[in-house]
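Exam revision sheet. Question 4 asks you to relate a sequence to its structure. Input first:
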Amino acid sequence: MARPLRIEFPGAIYHVAARGNARPAIFRDDADRDLFLDALGEVVARFGWLYHARCLMGKHYHLLIETPQAICRRPGLN
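Answer key, structure tokens:
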């Protein structure tokens, strides 16, 4: 069964969480975490998100992201 569609609107705040299949470690070391944060910074800048909080654990992470514009309705994304 598919999950319900995400509600999207300007100014929405999302809790984003992810983990690896079978819950292995997703970060090898601090350098790996830094690489992830660099990539996250590029995505945040590219899409104009506001990035409020993060929690990087060994096997998963949590982010708190605000989208000043609706995510999938930005020109050029479809």
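Marking note for examiners. The two ends are 24 Å apart (CA to CA).
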